[in-house]
Every structure is written in C-alpha cells, then in structure tokens.
Design a protein that fits this description.
It is a single chain. The protein is of the alpha+beta class and 692 residues long. It folds into 3 domains: 145 residues, Immunoglobulins (Immunoglobulin-like, Sandwich), CATH 2.60.40.10; 303 residues, Transglutaminase-like (Coagulation Factor XIII, Chain A, domain 2, Alpha-Beta Complex), CATH 3.90.260.10; 111 residues, Immunoglobulins (Immunoglobulin-like, Sandwich). The chain contains 13 helices and 35 strands. Helix 5 crosses helix 7. The protein is globular, with a radius of gyration of 38 Å. Catalyzes the cross-linking of proteins and the conjugation of polyamines to proteins. Responsible for cross-linking epidermal proteins during formation of the stratum corneum. Involved in cell proliferation.
C-alpha cells in the first residue's frame, strides 16, 4: 500500500550541503513484481500528464517497492509527479542553501572625524576620513549582513594584513577571532550590538602591534555549510603608536605633555649663540593633508621589514637615517656650502609639510636643501605623526667629536700653532636634534624616558648616517657603553676641550683642559607656552660638580683615549645596598641599608651622592624624589652600615603602577680617586590582607 515518510535528498546530493535543507515529504508508488518497465519518451510523459487515468498500470498481488519519486504533498487522488518537478525542487533547495549562507554586505569602519573611533584614539585632527587608530586600544566596526547573525550556527573572523608578505609568525598577518569577553594585550573581537542584519564589533589590539597600513578582510561561514564567504573592506586601517596606553612603550602619563609633544603642530626652534638666543616658529603640521601618507611612504621606503615596526626603538633609529639623504635617498639633502642655487636655502623653510609632500609626490626624490634645524623639524613632524612623543632640542656650544675620544681635542705644534690636519673636532655655535620619549627594554632599568636622536648627517653609526636613540640618563651619568650612539651625544654636551702640544719625539702632551667649554643652555619649547625651557640638567649634572666630573671621567675610559684622565691608584672601596626581608612596605617609611667596605690597610674618605627616583615598570624614571650627600670615613679594613630612610610623606603621592623606586649612589675616594657607584631598584610591597 502507498506509504509516507520523511526523507533527505537523493543520494547524489549527500555530502555537498549536509543537513542544510528542511525535510521533504515523499510518496512511495508500488509497482507490480515482474512487470516489464517501459522506457518513457517525452510524448508518453506528456500524454500521462494530460490523461493519467488512461495510463494506469495493471496491479499485481506482489507488492515490492521499486523506486522513490519526489512529489508534492499527497492529494485525495495521488497523481504521479512528472520529471520536471524534480528539477524545480532541486533548484529551490540550491537557492535556499545560498540564502542560508552568511555573507557581509558592507563594512563601516566608523572612520570619519566625528565618529567614535577617531575621537577615542585622539586622531580626529588628521585630515580626511581614513581609519586612523592607535594600538593597545579597542576600536569599533559595524557590518551589514545578508541575514541576522546566529551565535550558535555562524562563524566570523577578521584578517588584518600589512606589508608585501604578511606572516602570522611575524605579526604582519593578524587573525582576529570572535570572543565572549575581551582581554588586554591580544587581538580579539566581540559583538557588542546586534540589530537585525546589522552587528557592531569591538576589536582589541595589543600595545606591541606593528604600526603601519593594514588591509581588512572579513570571513564568514555557517556550521551547516563548508564554504566560507570573504569580504574585503574598501578602506585600509592605519595603526599608530599610542602614548595614551600604559602598556605601549611610548606611554607618556602627563596629559599636558601629550598635548604638547604629540598633538601640538606648531612649535619653536632655537638658534644663535648662548648669549644671543633666537627662536623661529616652525609648522610641524603632522595632521595636514598628505603628511601621514608621506610618513607611511618613508617607512615603506626604508629597509626595515614591516615586522620591525612594532619596536619604537627600531622605528626611530631607522627614521633618523631616512630623514637625511646621505646614504639611502632619504627626505632631505644637507648643504653647508652657502650655494643653494639649485634648491631652496635652508633658512627659507619654516614648515615640514611642503618638504614631506614634495618627497612623497616625487616618489622619493630627496628635497634640497636643509641644515640641522630643518632636519630636526621634519623629525619632530614624523615622530608626532606616528604617535611618538617628540620635541626639537637646541644645544649651544655643541661639540662634534670625530674620533670617539669623548673629548674635544685641539692639537698644537712646538710653537703653539694649530696643526690643522689634526684638528678635526669642532664646536658649533648651536646644533639642533630631537628628544623622543619611550621605554628602553633593551637597556638596564632606569634608562627609559627621553632619548636623544639626531637626523643631521654628521657621523656614521653601524655604517649609516644616523644617531640614537641615546638615553638621557646614560648620557648624564657617562654610561657611554649603552646603546645607541651615547658616546657621540655625550661629547656634544659634556666633553672637555683638551689642548695637546707636540713633543720633539712626535708625541703629544696635555697642556690645558677647559672643563666648561661645551653644552650650554640646552633648550626646547616649554609645555603649553612659547617660552624657552632650559633642559641642560637632563643631559648633565651641574657643571663642575663632583657628579659631573665623575661622569666625564667615566665616559672617557670607554673612549679612544682612556688615559686622558688620571686613573685610580687603587680599587679597594666597595658599596652595596641591602634590604631586610622582602623589602619595604607601602604606607610606611622605606628603609634600606647602605654598606661601605674598605679593603685596604689605610683609611679612606668619600662622599656618597644619593638620589632616589620613581620608576615605571618599563624602566622609565618619572622623577627624582630626594637627593642627599652621605659623608663616609673608613678606618683600615673597616665596614660601615648606614641606615637609609625615605619617609612615607615624601613618596605617598609620587608612586606609579607597581610602586618601583631606583636608588643611585656615586662618589669618589679622596685618597685614591677611585669612583664608587651603585644602582638599586626596589618595590614597595602592598600590605598583607588578612580575611577573618
């Protein structure tokens, strides 16, 4: 007898779209056993359709199922369904399957200047409606889909790619999954709004993400459908450094300083002499139309692989080379000859914008001409544009050390006449370079913060005309063995000018030392005003102080003339810092012990210069809390312990993130001229919490 059951498609469809169509009711037509099956032609099928009653088969007593045909739902009088009906059903199912696929119709990056992304990421000052965001911070994307998104059955992820050969292992190809909860320091996306076919995503990026230009692809699929759909956004995403993000290496925690060193597009650059300081207004113009594109072009033109653009130290080092055209067809050609007939005189420039646009529009033809203040102005523009806090800095009486002696040397003959071919060192009336702000994870703690970089081509560094970044703290303390190019910058600001006279045997004898010849009135524009700020104290200790002299002599020992200054007669005094138990607790006075040992059989005297500074966990020093001097007198073979106490009231409003402090000690032993030093980092522990 005829029967009904639920069935899937024919066997030819199984495996192509498994489970994607709703069940179909089928009717079983019973044929007589042993009946010869006739091949039906088109005419017979047409006749059977017109008059089915005349074409009924004769029944038999043996009921055996012979075949299954797709038919319409059963009617009171069953009617066999002709062949074309089968094709119609299959076409309908294919269309139904296509409609079930999830696909993206459009993507809105919410990138206009008035949208949420640009405002929250502090990029609304950039011209145009490009998607410009900062790393380490969430951003929003809206999508229109072909149907409502189902969290149970649908899948969606984002692809971001940068560079010519994106690789997941290099961080240049990023696959961003959908998650239920966003976590810091990873690429993730979460649906935060859904309204019909429209969804809004919140996307998180790590603070170490590669900066640059990204292409966006959205991939969607359905659990019941093997095939996936992709949608390429017609807009790119520009990723920048983020000085507002605590986890970013360029984080700057003062909002007024961020406004000055990142967002301010007008500044002042100082020139002249130390007694006649002049100032010129400079249009950095980092937000002007075409400048961001030019900065991206400079990054692309450099030899730096895209995977290296996540490291701020690496980026500024490459840029210090790319701003000058000396050896890599960079932005600007230097010219100190006085003949500028085939270009623009350096003194005629007052803005970085025209120079950068010209370089970009000419596909990388260096612009003529520039001198130190123009190189510095362009560097400030590019760094601020990319999100790295930066400023132009002028050093008056700036030394140029050509032989890494860490001194400015003047050679005289037996008659006290200058020996011109030996006198390659020089002192400029002024020289302009840049400071940029960043953590230095590649250096010991305490060397983050302001770093000096110089784009003016003076000397090569690792075979290329570039300079820096060199830590201010390393420069000030004479730690010239710390990278990058610290010896050169140290000599610019704190080298002694030493006069040498030739001896009859062709050797030279030191006849005079000028200790205050270089590094005067180091200047930059003040935060929030057009006043000049003197930042000499950031580059060197007070001229003539014992700390400054220790720094000069320490640096000299790592130069090409290590015996310029007298060496210590003995190395027999040592200093160390000890802490009791697990160290000081927050909320109480911080107490440490300073132990000084005399290993000689004679008495020793010294004065320890002590200073303690607040430090971020990244190694950046926020500021000095206290300075003091500790006189020390030691008998032969004596060891003394001094209690060092930092009262709670002095640090209670100064601490940051992990409550770290750095104590620096230095001094000179009077009897032997030995330099003693120690640097200790410690953290104030939070009080124990006991729950009863």
């Amino acid at each position: 007898m005829p029967g009904e059951r639920l069935a899937v498609r024919g066997t030819s469809e199984v495996g192509r779209f498994p489970g994607a169509a709703p069940p179909t009711r089928v009717e079983l037509t019973i044929h007589k056993d042993g009946e010869k099956k006739l091949e039906e032609g088109g005419c017979r099928r047409w006749f059977k359709k017109m008059c089915p009653c005349c074409c009924k088969r004769q029944s038999n007593t043996h009921d055996v199922t012979d075949k299954v045909e797709f038919v319409k739902p059963p009617a009171p009088t069953p009617t066999p369904t002709p062949e074309p009906a089968k094709l119609t059903v299959e076409n309908g199912e294919a269309k139904e399957m296509e409609e079930m696929k999830l696909s993206v119709c459009s993507v809105d990056l919410l990138s206009s200047k008035t949208d949420q992304n640009r405002k929250e990421h502090h990029t609304e000052l950039f011209q145009g409606d490009d998607m410009i965001i900062r790393r380490g911070q969430t951003f929003q994307i809206e999508m229109d889909l072909n149907r409502p998104f189902s969290a149970d059955n649908d899948k969606l992820y984002l692809d971001l790619k940068t560079g010519p050969l994106p690789l997941v292992s290099k961080g240049t190809h990023v696959i961003i999954p959908l998650v239920d909860h966003l976590e810091d320091e990873r690429w993730e996306a979460k649906i935060v709004e859904q309204n019909g076919n429209k969804i809004k995503l919140s996307v998180n990026s790590p603070a170490s993400a590669v900066i640059g230009l990204y292409g966006l692809t959205v991939t969607t699929s359905t659990s019941k459908c093997v095939a996936a759909n992709t949608h390429n956004s017609d807009k790119n995403i520009v990723m920048l450094f983020n000085p507002w993000c605590e986890e970013d290496a360029v984080f700057l925690d003062d909002e007024e300083e961020r406004k000055e060193y990142v967002l301010n597009d007008i500044g002042r650059i100082y020139y002249g002499t130390e007694k006649q300081i002049g100032a010129r207004t400079w249009n950095f113009g980092q937000f002007h139309e075409g400048v961001l594109e030019a900065c991206m072009f400079i990054l692309e033109k450099s030899d730096m692989p895209p995977s290296g653009r996540g490291d701020a130290v690496n980026v500024v080092r490459v840029l210090s080379a790319m701003i000058n055209a000396q050896d890599d067809f960079g932005v600007l050609v230097g010219n100190w000859s006085g003949d500028y007939s085939d270009g623009v005189s350096p003194s005629a420039w007052s803005s970085s914008v025209e120079i950068l646009r010209k370089y970009h529009s000419s596909n990388g033809t260096p612009v003529s001409y520039g001198q130190c203040w123009v190189f510095s102005g362009i560097t400030t523009t590019v760094l601020r544009c990319l999100g790295i806090p930066a400023r132009s800095v002028t050093n008056f009486q700036s030394a140029h050390d050509t032989d890494v002696s860490l001194t400015t040397d003047v050679y005289l003959d037996e008659d006290m006449e200058p020996i011109d071919y030996l006198n390659s060192d020089s002192v400029w009336n002024f020289h302009v370079w840049n400071d940029c702000w960043m953590a230095r994870q590649d250096l010991p703690p305490g060397h983050g913060g302001w770093q000096a970089i110089d784009s003016t081509p003076q000397e090569t560094s690792q075979g290329t005309f570039r300079c820096g970044p060199a830590s201010h703290n390393a420069i000030r303390s004479g730690q010239v063995y710390l990278k990058h190019d610290t010896p050169f910058v140290f000599a610019e600001v704190n080298s002694d000018k030493i006069f040498w006279q030739r001896n009859p045997d062709a050797g030279f004898t030191q006849i005079h030392c000028e200790k205050k010849a270089v590094g005067h009135h180091i200047s930059t524009k003040a935060v929030g005003s057009d006043e000049r700020a003197d930042i000499t104290h950031l580059y060197k200790y007070q001229e003539g102080s014992e700390e400054e002299r220790i720094a000069v002599e320490t640096a000299s020992r790592f130069g090409s003339k290590p015996d310029t200054y007298s060496t210590a007669l003995a190395q027999d005094v040592f200093v160390e810092v000890k802490m009791e138990g697990e160290g000081p607790r927050m909320g109480a006075d911080a107490k440490l012990s300073i132990v000084v040992k005399n290993l000689s059989s004679q008495s020793r005297r010294t004065t320890l210069h002590s200073q303690v500074a607040v430090m971020y966990y990244t190694g950046v020093l926020k500021g000095t809390i206290r300075k003091e001097q500790i006189p020390v007198e030691l008998l032969p073979n004596e060891e003394k312990t001094f209690d060092w106490v930092l009262p709670y009231q002095q640090y209670q409003n100064q601490l940051v993130d992990q409550a770290a402090l750095m104590l620096t000690l230095s001094g000179r032993v009077s009897e032997t001229q030995q330099v003693v030093a120690n640097q200790t980092t410690f953290r104030l522990r939070t009080p124990d919490l006991n729950i009863t």
